[in-house]
Amino acid sequence: MILFIYDKTFEGLLTAVFHAYSRRTFPDRLLAEGEPLPLFYDEVVTIHTEEDKCDRVWKGLQKRLAALSLSVLTVAWLSEQEGVDLLLFRYIRKALDTPQSIELNFGDPDVLEVSKVWKKVSNERLRVMQFLRFQKAADGTFFAAVAPIYNVLPLVIPYLQDRFADQTWLIYDLKREYGYYYDQKEVTEVRFETKEAHLLSGLLSESLMDKDEKLFQQMWKEYFKSIAIKERLNPRLHRQHMPARFWKYMAEKQ
Amino acid sequence: MDESVLEKLKILAESAKYDVSCASSGTSRSHKSGMVGSAAGWGICHSFAEDGRCISLLKIMLTNYCMYDCAYCINRRSNDLRRATLSVSELVSLTIEFYRRNYIEGLFLSSGVVRSPDYTMERLVRAIKDLRLIHHFNGYIHMKSIPGASQELVNEAGLYADRLSVNIEIPNEKSLQVLAPEKDFNSVFTPMRYIQQGVLQSAEERKRFRHAPRFAPAGQSTQMIVGATADTDKDILYLSSALYQRPTMKRVYYSGFIPVNSYDNRLPALKQPPLVRENRLYQADWLLRFYQFKVDEIVNDAYPELDLEIDPKLSWALRHTEAFPVDINKADYEMLLRIPGIGVKSAKLIVVSRRYARLGASQLKKMGVVMKKAQYFITCHELPMQTVNEMSPEAVRRLLTQKSKKTTDDRQLIIQFQDQ
């Protein structure tokens, strides 16, 4: 068994592809630095991420795959799922080795699996776009916290930037402990050293809220209650469309 | 903003909730500087009410006072319920503040008819005009066009709204006259025609002048109540199909009748709304719009009602066994769509992937084909030939409608105690 050890970044993965081709040996497992090695193996290769090698692989992929498929790869990477790196490795290898394009060959298990992972991440992105709730703070910043299962925040930014272009906002990922801040000009990634209460619970305390915020939340809650038709109540469907893991941060479900 | 608006919001949302449409699709607009918001072309549902229906727009009435006395409507003038009217500034601030918090995609504005259709329509148009021009709201606006309103007002509304709609409610003119004596088909279809004319005219103008104003870019929709009258599914679907032939009709909604005025004996007394029938109608509607079915294939004189037990596509397949089995690796896209268990997505996946290699049952399953249904209607790389033709439609139907009545766990040892 051949093991590749790399730094668990997308660039690192592409560098690993480069080294695999230059050595003509392909890994059976991809490990992170510091991860315990399995009991039996033949060879361990440590990959150091190098920008020029990563670029060469990416350029090679650009020749073989359409822009859409490349974005499928990067989006699937954001799933951060166990084993997604090896799956992408196999996909990239197939894309480079097969003379004709493999992008639409959904009979191939790897191609189908990549598109399924992509679909899962895109769905999570959509859910964040749907269920993200801004709370207006006293200084006029709109604050929203989410805890998505995949790392979809970077994918949501274009939507937020387009829609809420004329307001200052901060969106924060509670799980991965980072966020994006928009100052009506540009978006910057932010991390906080000290975690205040709202960076842990996701909800602004009343002292931090804008004076009308409470009222609007209450109005939205009442609206949410009144719009449901009692004769058609369907808790299962409700839960299916709006997964319970989002409820914690939504005004109407408080 | 104060507490009184909260009360009004409750009353007016209660009154508006029976309108089914909450779609925010059909218009794509990116942000413009100095304006609030954008419109996403595919629409986004920002919440789901406890009945499982999507909340995409702030669905609200400007007022729930109404001079009409339609038997099926909760807001009829003879009903004793709390009435309220929103001022334009209250409406604007609600919409924009909700929008800024990502609660909604935009506004769905309707109204009870006060004084005259034109008077009401004018107030609605003024509200959305203010929202667009003074408050620079760039989100989605769906406005109800009031039956009987004049063409000038409809034309003005189309400039500010993304979608306009007029509800048919009752699919048959005679029943409509019984239930809503103040309305007739003419008062419904005339504004529909105005909207269509406006859209087509603006499309024509935009070909010549790039900056000609857009008119209701997301087209129009309508709604029919199901189960309030004796109309069959055939009547309903023939009407929808005729409406879809028109160039601007994007959606027809079906609303299972909820007896809101149970004292009115012109209406049937139902224990619960006909939800299964409503679902089957939506499935048939999808067959019309996305599966290239003709309406007379779904319902006709021999089968005027949809089968409540099985979906309309399966029902068609069981009536037309001569068309099956279909070879997955050879059949064209149109035929793939007609196989029960294969939807638009899996049909497209099949069409692109079978160029590389012949597909087998396990691959189909992974692609998302519902093999439980599809297995009786297809042949593929290796599937055994136990199709609907070998088995008979009745047997397939029985297999597919069987409810698993397994209440006991077979891993559990059952000890039978004899009664003494």
Structure notes:
The complex is a heterodimer of chains A (254) and B (420). Chain A is α/β, with parallel strands linked by helices and 254 residues long. Helices cover 45% and strands 13% of the residues of chain A. Chain A is built from 9 helices and 8 strands. Chain A has a 5-stranded mixed β-sheet with strand order 4-5-6-7-8. In chain A, strands 2-1-3 form a 3-stranded parallel β-sheet, covered by helices on one side. In chain A, helix 6 (153-163) links the parallel strand 5 (142-146) and strand 6 (169-173). In chain A, helix 1 (10-23) packs across helix 2 (51-64), helix 1 crosses helix 4 (84-97) and helix 3 (67-77) crosses helix 5 (109-131). With 420 residues, chain B is α/β, with parallel strands linked by helices. Chain B contains 16 helices and 10 strands. In chain B, the strands form 3 sheets. A 6-stranded parallel β-sheet of chain B has the order 3-4-5-6-7-8. In chain B, helix 3 packs parallel to helix 4, helix 4 packs across helix 6 (185-208) and helix 7 packs parallel to helix 8. Chain B is globular. The model of chain B has no long low-confidence stretch (mean pLDDT 91). At the A-B interface, helix 5, strand 4, helix 6, helix 8 and helix 9 of A face helix 1, strand 1, strand 2, helix 2 and helix 12 of B.
Overview features:
heterodimer; A: 254 residues; alpha/beta; five-stranded mixed sheet; three-stranded parallel sheet; 9 helices; 13% strand; elongated; B: 420 residues; six-stranded parallel sheet; 16 helices; 10% strand; globular
